[in-house]
Each structure stands twice: as structure tokens, then as C-alpha cells.
Write a structure and sequence with these properties.
Elements: H1 2-19, E1 34-41, E2 47-52, E3 69-74, E4 79-85, E5 90-92, E6 102-109, E7 112-119, E8 125-137, E9 143-152, E10 160-167, E11 174-175, E12 181-182, H2 187-192, E13 202-205, E14 213-220, E15 225-226, E16 229-230, E17 233-240, H3 242-257, H4 262-265, H5 272-276, E18 292-304, E19 306-307
Parallel strand pairs: 1-18, 8-19
Antiparallel strand pairs: 1-2, 2-5, 3-4, 3-6, 4-5, 6-7, 8-9, 9-14, 10-11, 10-13, 10-17, 12-14, 15-16, 17-18
Length: about 300
């Protein structure tokens, strides 16, 4: 019996030892690239951040570049130079960005020129947003809020959208996270919203629109009836440029795989592999020529849901 136990112990040591592998990876500590970010919003002044990325072994505190020359040119040829604001550590302009225009960004640092282009889409219209309570239930028999949203869409061109909800019953108001949504089967969201990555917002295009309208339905457990009265929940729909749409899609996947934000806080079983990572890193979309970052744009529409008894 003792010989058998000794043999099993030796066998276990051999098996475990054969599973151990030492992996060594050398990160290039000298890689640093110029990063530029600017997201234009209709009716607001442009803000441009310019900085150098840090290497893998550096601190997370990056240094803003103040000596750059930054300019934005509108589609009609009007060009204006931005000035550095030390309060927000960014370049700002006193000229509002407007929907319907194309814009070009140029950043000069020494002899290097960084460029990008985008356009501010027209404002999308929320035709209707309503919800009912109690007609739908989840797998545990709990009442769900069923939301129906209709957007008016210009079918003559490609359009891209970002959608999220804000609950005003919270103080301060809070964006509803992915885990409040239940039984999502709407074709638009299932096809395009990257639901497998538990997004903090929904992204979709008008590829599945019907005669100039996009209809979206889903169930939610995060808002319904408060103190016997319908809760105040607002829908926010952003019409986003194609460049910003591509960046946000890459950000959703990146956030999920790196366990940023909400994905760390909802782990029930404390799986150590989920705490540290979900998957391989992904490269974020960039449209900055000669650098990295994003130059995008959006317009925003808001509407409070109507409660239907």
C-alpha cells in the first residue's frame, strides 16, 4: 500500500513538473508615439488633446505636448488655429463646430505633420420612446420594463448611432449598465451591438432600417415604477461619424478583454483569470495619419420615455 502511494506521489510530481513552462517576453521600452484625440460635438468648441504615449514600463501619467501647432479647417475652406489652455491641458478654439460640415485636423510638431478628417452628421430624431411594465418577465418570474424606441433615419446615406439610457431616479443621474438589459432579441442590436462584449452603450447603423425608420425593443430591470409613479428615464441617441463609430466598436472589445470598468465589479465567482484578463489585447481604431488617436464627431438627441399603462 505504501509503495503504491509513493508511486502515485512520484507520478504526480512528474506530471505537474511537465506542465510548468517559463515564458519570457521582452517589451520594447523605447516605443512612444504621438497621440491626438478630438471628438467634435455639434454646437460646441473643439478641444484637441496632444500627448506622447508611454511605454509598457512607464507610469500611467502621460505628458501633454504644449508646443504643437494645431489647426482645424472646415469644408468651406475656413481655417482657425487653436490655442493651448493650461487649465484643461488641451488646445481649444473659440469657433463652434456645426453639423453637416466636413472638418480636417492638422497638428504640427517640429517637422512632423499629423492629419485626420471627419464630418459632423445631421442630428437624428427620436420619433417615439415608450415603455410598459409588468407585461414581460425574466426567467425568474420578475417583472421587466419593456422599451420601444423608433428613430427617424435618412435612408439616402449611411448613418451610425450610439444609444444609452440615463436613469434620473438616481442621485446623481446614472447611465444604465449592460447588466440591467434582459432577453435582448431585437435584430438591430443582436446583429450590430456587440452584445457578447457586454457594452456600456449600444452601437448600430441603419443597415437594417425599414423605410426611413429604425425600431428598437428591449427589456430592462433597472428602471420601472418608483413609489407608485413611473420612473424618469431618458434615452440618449448620438448620430456619430463613421470614424468615431469604428473607434467606439474597437473600444467596446478592448474594454471587455482588458476588464476595464464594469466587467471587474460584477464577477460572482471571483475567477482569477477573469479578474486579470478576458482575452488577448486588441488594437484601438485610429484615423490619425502618422500618429495614433481618433478625430471623430457626433450630434446628440435626448428624450424622456413615456410610460404606457
Amino acid at each position: 500500500m505504501h509503495k503504491l502511494l509513493l508511486f502515485e506521489s512520484i507520478l504526480m510530481i512528474i506530471v505537474c513538473s511537465s506542465c510548468i513552462r517559463e515564458v519570457e517576453y521582452v517589451f520594447d521600452d523605447d516605443i512612444s508615439r504621438t497621440a491626438i484625440t478630438c471628438v467634435l460635438e455639434n454646437g460646441t468648441d473643439p478641444v484637441v488633446k496632444v500627448f506622447n504615449t508611454n511605454s509598457i514600463n512607464d507610469s500611467l501619467d502621460y505628458v501633454d505636448l504644449k508646443d504643437a501647432t494645431v489647426s482645424i479647417t472646415r469644408g468651406d475652406g475656413e481655417s482657425y488655429e487653436l490655442t493651448f489652455d493650461p487649465v484643461i491641458n488641451a488646445f481649444i478654439s473659440g469657433t463652434m463646430a456645426l453639423a453637416g460640415w466636413n472638418y480636417e485636423l492638422e497638428v504640427r510638431i517640429s517637422d512632423v505633420v499629423y492629419t485626420a478628417a471627419t464630418s459632423i452628421p445631421s442630428k437624428g430624431e427620436i420619433y417615439q420612446a415608450s415603455y410598459t411594465y409588468g407585461k414581460h418577465k425574466d426567467e425568474y418570474g420578475m417583472d421587466l420594463t419593456h422599451c420601444e424606441i423608433t428613430l427617424l433615419d435618412d435612408s439616402l446615406k449611411e448613418n451610425y448611432y450610439q444609444l444609452f439610457l440615463i436613469n434620473y431616479e438616481n442621485s446623481p443621474p446614472a447611465i444604465l449598465n449592460f447588466y440591467g438589459y434582459k432577453n435582448i432579441s431585437n435584430p438591430v442590436l443582436v446583429t450590430e451591438a456587440l452584445l457578447e462584449y457586454e457594452p456600456e452603450f449600444f452601437l448600430f447603423s441603419d443597415a437594417n432600417s425599414e423605410q426611413g425608420m429604425i425600431k428598437i425593443e428591449f427589456n430592462n430591470i433597472s428602471f420601472s415604477i418608483f413609489n407608485g409613479k413611473p420612473g424618469k428615464t431618458q434615452i440618449v441617441v448620438r448620430s456619430v461619424s463613421k470614424e468615431y463609430y469604428k473607434f467606439l466598436r474597437s473600444w467596446i472589445v478592448h474594454s471587455y478583454k482588458q476588464n476595464n470598468g464594469q466587467h471587474v465589479n460584477v464577477i460572482d465567482d471571483l475567477d482569477p483569470y477573469r479578474i486579470f484578463f478576458q482575452g488577448q489585447p486588441v488594437e484601438l481604431y485610429s484615423n490619425i495619419e502618422n500618429g495614433v488617436g481618433v478625430f471623430g464627431a457626433y450630434t446628440e438627441s435626448r428624450k424622456f420615455f413615456t410610460y404606457v399603462e
